[in-house]
Design goal:
The structure holds two protein chains of two kinds. Chain A is 64% helix and 2% strand. Chain A is mainly alpha-helical. Chain A has two domains: 6-202, no CATH class; 204-238, no CATH class. Chain B has a domain at 25-158. Chain B starts with a helix and ends in an 8-residue tail after the last helix. The chains are: A mainly alpha, B mainly alpha. At the A-B interface, helix 2, helix 4, helix 8 and helix 9 of A face helix 2, helix 4, helix 6, helix 7 and helix 9 of B.
Chain lengths: 238, 193
Amino acid sequence: MENKSKLSILTNGIIKENPVLVLLIGTCPALAVSTSLLNALGMGVAATAVLICSNIVISMLRKVIPDKVRIPCYIVVIAGFVTVVQFVLQAYAPELNKALGVFIPLIVVNCIILGRAEAFANKNTIVDSALDGIGMGLGFTLALALMGAIREFLGTGGLLGYTIIPGFSIGFFNLPPGGFFVYGILIAVLMKATHGKALKAKSFSCGVCPMYNSCNLAEANEEIAAEKAAVSQKGAEA
Amino acid sequence: MVNLIVIFMSIVFVNNFVLSQFLGICSFLGVSNKMSSAVGMGSAVVFVMVIAEAVTWPIQQLLNKFDMGYLQTVVFILVIAALVQFVEMFMKKYLPALQKALGIFLPLITTNCAILGATINAITFGYSFAESMIYSFGAGVGYMIAMILFAGVREEKLYNEEGVPAAFKGVPLILVSAAIMSLSFMGFAGMFQ
């Protein structure tokens, strides 16, 4: 990690490891709030703010936090910042707060934030962690904004509340299925454009989860694989 | 009583947690590749969701009493994390059979947004204790139904990637299938309000 330039840390999250489009994490908020461009931007900014602050604090505390209880510690730090963001939104943007609803407190369990704490802030200096937070946050915001813009334009025929094509609207894109559909098409376009090289995660599986290594499911899967191998070996011997 | 039935039916079908509210998508797409794991994960979610609701609802009343409702997010996630650990330990000691079936899914559930979402929603909607218990049970059942249906689709022999354009193989195909399933659930809209 030492020889990585500051710029590459920053741009890593935006393009090469875009959390939503390449790593396929943070899908819940991406699908839920991308009904309009404004909601998508609001969610992106809120999550970015939490991500940067939690990355900095966790990086500062990385030598203090005992390894065994690190996940609960991260959760407390993140939950604290989420509460701050909640207060700010309630005070200055009550309408946005209402539109995003339960997804603001749910930033706590957003895989991107916990994942970056575990994978990056835990091992890197404060400046690098802050840059990583900015990059990952921007990547998340851009992906959300792209989906929000597509869904709002096709769903209402306008952007940010202004009508562009009067009378044009395909209601499907404002509904939940439209979210899955637009996300699927976006990934297909990305794969076509890069000949399938862009996507880091080949499929939705537990492997894409940032908590994979600290989760029992990984061990269980290995056990099952080992059992299967033993059974097939026995079969071969017989 | 009618009220409780309406809450239950509405959260299972009309406002299905996965397919119309997008809560718990990561695990929905990740664990639905095999029917056995879909059933295990679904039952674990129902189980934890009901217990979490039973614990967090009284805690919220306590917080409100001391005028500290704003601590909701911090307290809930910690309570859920501790609860999952406790349930796992309890099952290991006293219910080893259940632990074998559900145990591996439990740690995954701590960071599952469906659990935290259900507990926070029940408070936001101002439900009574009975109502929030039914709400969270229904949310879990809805999650399980969506999960089992989708695992059924993905295990079906007709679901294969032959003839699918190269760019759509894998992830996009799963997402478009989920879109079609979500579309079919839209048919329930307006049934219960």
